[in-house]
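#onboarding

Welcome to the new folks! Below is a worked example of what a typical request in this channel looks like: someone posts a single protein sequence, and someone else replies with the predicted structure as tokens. Don't worry about understanding the tokens yet, we'll cover that in week two.

Example request:
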Amino acid sequence: MTYNLPTARRHLRRNWTAFFSDNFFFGIGLTFASVSTILPAFAALLTDNKIIIGATAAVWTGAWLLPQIFAAHWLSDKTRKWPVMFWGELIGRPIMIAFVVWVLVTGLRFPTLTLIFFFIAITYFRMTDAVVALAWFDLLGKALAPELRGRLIGVGQVLTGVAALGAGVLIRYVFSDQGPAFPYNYAVVFGLAALCFTLSEIACVFVVEQPEAVAEVRPTIREYLPQLARLLQSDQAFRRVTLVRLLAGLGTLASTFYVLYATRVLSLPPQSIGLFAGAATGGAALAGVLLGVVADRLGTHRVIQVITWCQFAVPVMALLVHFGVFGSAAGAVFPLLYVLMGAFDGSVMLGFLNYVLEISLPGQRPTYMGLTNTLSGLLVLVPLAGGWVLEHSSYPLLFGLAAMGTLPAALLALTLPNPRQSVAAEASEVTLAAPPGLPRQPVH
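Example response:
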């Protein structure tokens, strides 16, 4: 992998601080707009339809993942990615503020319109952020060496998790009897999310982009799609890590519905949502402490192995709670599910995405990232399927199917190669034709 060392070193501290600050504030924002707690709980107060509730996770995930392969194609000949990142944030993030204003002005008078606007807002926000994310990862890959990236993401997880624990306490208060009534309590929470997303954008202003060769001419779609197929065929490490991520993503079959199970079956109070949000970010923080060191010293493949077993353990614990293994302590044990979910969700960047960055060829990071993310977008229907299962069956069947789906991911992750040992050998064998203007062989 090629780095412009003099330029990178000159701007290293500034870039590290900017990327860290962006990651920190964006992570806290995701606590206030958590797809595993806040978003489905809000939808559940506007509709009883389980499929629509499950659609919150489907839309949140799919709107971010599915467009990325087309965004990667568009970015392939862009010499500078910073303007794409900045303008994408500036255009996309104000929708959250607009939704907060809608809730404050209309209150409960138009629940159906509020639900429609809710889905429009999260779709627009995530689709624009999909383009931002590809530019952001390319900038990160050019600015920081692999070991520094792992350290930044790991430390970011820790500090974000600590701050998000405080956010969880705040959320718990907002949803308590002392907080504002529905839907104004959600307006407060979504407003805090919008504030954090705005602060993360301000941090991105200070990123200094490092130069790197790109395609002189953007390939046509007819040329581009066969290149993607050859990449999957020839790069074994990329193919395997993407498959592991897909299988692990089957855990989303049930993830949207744990909060409903807790409040409606276990009869935990509504303020437990704040506890769950805090537990999830606490899990991400704990993973950052432990797995940041693992990524730095042992490699990102070890991070993936740990978090896929965490993902498998979530539905298993839910089944144990349902069948009374923990007895009267079920309410106290249930937040541990969110600790494990937080460890997985919070470490996707540290594990899967950092792994892909390590094996990506210079100048082609957007293609690698866009392809792995878009393929992961195939999971967009999984939460909807979970809603259908729950609508026609039961919670234990839903949890059991999630466990059966994620176990193969945990087992296959054990076979992932260490990218730091194998990337030089495997990259030299990649037969993917580089886009016009790029050398066929990677430069190390």
